[in-house]
Please model this.
Amino acid sequence: MPSESSFAAPGAMRGGDDVIPVSVLNRAIGTMLERSFPLMWIAGEVSNFTRAASGHWYFSIKDAQAQMRCVMFRGRAQYAEFTPREGDRIEVRAAVTMYEPRGEVQLNVEAVRRTGQGRLYEAFLRLKAQLEAEGLFAPERKRPLPAHPRAIGIVTSLQAAALRDVLTTLARRAPHVPVIVYPAPVQGAGSAEKLVAAVEAANARAEVDVLVVCRGGGSIEDLWSFNDEALARAIAASALPVVSGVGHETDFTIADFAADVRAPTPTGAAELASPQRALLLREIDERQRALARGMRRGLESRAQQLDWLARRLVSPAERLERQRTHLAQLAVRLASAAGRPVRDARARFALAQLRWQRARPDPSHARRALDGLSQRLALALQRRHEREAARVAGCAARLEVLSPQRTLERGYAALIDTQTGRAVRAPAALKPQRRLTVHLAEGSADVSLADVQPRLSDTF
Model:
């Protein structure tokens, strides 16, 4: 029986009489499916949806002609934006796999979205990139919201639950601020154009200080009216500051980016657009108390200043006496000041004389130092002359020992070839009839060789 490893891939399978287990066949089929079908988006209708205790999703997607079983494991399912229900039209991003224990082909789902959501989301991203490139979402275009609006405008549907939430929040936070509703449908055909008309009407009437554009949550199809390019441009061109409160906190629309402030919910938009009445009343009370304290401190300061001015009021006789006393003090200071420069000058002169005496040089000390240096110089020159003389004598003795004349005096002679003027060093240089000059200790002589008998060197 062949080993299972030989059938791990379709290319390894062989025909003939080979027998393989079912598990090996299913594994080979599964490998072939995974290699043949890449990760893709598949559309269909949900049926037989089941959420297991483990958190995995099991369901089927079908159309009019066929169906396919699907599994979405918990690690992927927990990030899905919604839970499919029976009959929902969805698109799944999945890989084709084989469930080997049962031999069933299934889809291993990695992501799920409602049908058409992908195309809408791509259109959303394209429009967002286009308007962002035009600078429509630039932070410098954003306008601050008024701290104390005289009136608040709301653009939404009269039947929307978001309108009730916004009105309830405004009644609780700022019952003193009037509210004007500019009704417009928030979904369906033609809703985007009516929302644009409502925003433009609010700007034309100029009866509010801030505008809230809102609606409740929903799918991307439900919120698509707020992804309209004309609405985004109307919000950006609005002379009134606009607060966008569309959908839930995780929902984002083009209107959110074009608005001056984006709120996570309609209720949050109402809170951002309105001041809180209790806080305003508390602030008014605090400012009233601060004003009262300031007035009391001002009155107390003026009273203290009045007392100080009253103490400064004196009679003319007392003022003359004070001036006489002051004049006498000035006379004493003048007399003292007249003699002070002379005393100061004498003190400075005495100090300068003392410093000069201390800084004056002593020639006798310098002369003694100079005599000592002269003696040391003469002694150093004498010692150096003696050392140089001894060195010259040593060199002369060594030169005398190495002198050629001394070598000749010991009985040696030097043979010079008369023709070349070079010393003869080897017997081969001696030729018959060759003239030589012989240098001796007490002179030299010219000789001519009659015969030459070379021989081996003798040791002296």
Observations:
- The first strand starts at residue 40 and ends at 51.
- The chain has a mean pLDDT of 85.
